[in-house]
Amino acid sequence: MAEALAELCGAVVVHGDDFYRPMDAEERAGLDPVQGYHRYFDWQRLREEVLAPLAAGRDAGYRRYDWPTGTLAPDEIHTVSRSGIVVVEGVYAARPELTDYYDLVVYVDPRARNPCGGFVSAATTTARSTGSPAGAWPACLRVPGSGAVGHASSARSCRFRAGRRA
C-alpha cells in the first residue's frame, strides 16, 4: 500500500524494517513479546534521524538496518527531502511515541474484508498541514490492489475509509 501511495502521489517511502535495533541473535530470540515490542524496533532512531528533522523543516538522513549482517549498513545514507509527502510504513511505525509526527495514520487489518475489494481497515484521522502544495492529495484516492479509499475534503485534511467506517 505504501508503494502504491508513493507512486500515486510522488511520495518517498521510509520502511520501518530499516529501523530494527541491532542486537545479538541470541538476545533477540530470548525476548518475550512484551520485551520484543520495546526492543526490536528502534523508534528513537526513526524519531531522531527522520521524523524530528522533517518536523523541523530539515532534510533527514538515516542508515538502514541490514538484515543479513544484523547491523546498520555502514556505507549507506538514505536521504529524505523535507519537501513533499513522506510515507512511513511498518508494523511498529505507529507507536504512540511517534504519532504526533504524522499527519495521517492508517491501520491495515488484513482480517477485515473491505467491500471495495482487498482486506483493509483504516483509522480515520485529520491530517495537519505540512506545507505540501494544495492538491498534493487527489480529491479521491483509491490505492490499487489494497481496497483503501481516501477522500480529501480540503488541502489540509484527508480521510481514509475502509469497510463501513468513514
Give structural notes.
β7 (140-142) and β8 (149-154) form a beta hairpin. The radius of gyration is 17 Å and the shape is globular. A three-stranded antiparallel β-sheet has the order 7-8-9, with no helix packed on it. It has a two-stranded parallel ribbon with strand order 1-6. It contains four helices and nine strands, in the order αβαααββββββββ. It is 20% helix and 19% strand. It has two domains: 1-101, P-loop containing nucleotide triphosphate hydrolases (Rossmann fold, 3-Layer(aba) Sandwich), CATH 3.40.50; 103-166, no CATH class. By secondary structure, it is an alpha+beta fold. The longest helix has 13 residues, at 43-55. One of its GO terms (molecular function) is kinase activity. It holds the Pfam family PRK. This is Phosphoribulokinase/uridine kinase domain-containing protein. It comes from Streptomyces swartbergensis.
Largest sheet: 3 strands, antiparallel
Assembly classification: single chain
Tell me the count of domains.
2
Extract low-pLDDT stretches. Answer: 118-166
CATH class of the largest domain equals Alpha Beta
Q: Which structural category fits the helices and strands?
A: alpha+beta
Total beta-strand segments: 9
Tell me the series of helices and strands, N- to C-terminal: HEHHHEEEEEEEE
Helix coverage percent of residues?
10-25%
Q: What's the short story on this structure?
A:
InterPro entries: P-loop_NTPase, PRK/URK. With 166 residues, the protein is α+β, with helices and mostly antiparallel strands.
Write the layout of secondary structure elements.
Blueprint: H1 2-9, E1 12-15, H2 25-29, H3 33-39, H4 43-55, E2 60-62, E3 65-66, E4 71-72, E5 78-80, E6 86-89, E7 140-142, E8 149-154, E9 157-161
Parallel strand pairs: 1-6
Antiparallel strand pairs: 2-5, 3-4, 7-8, 8-9
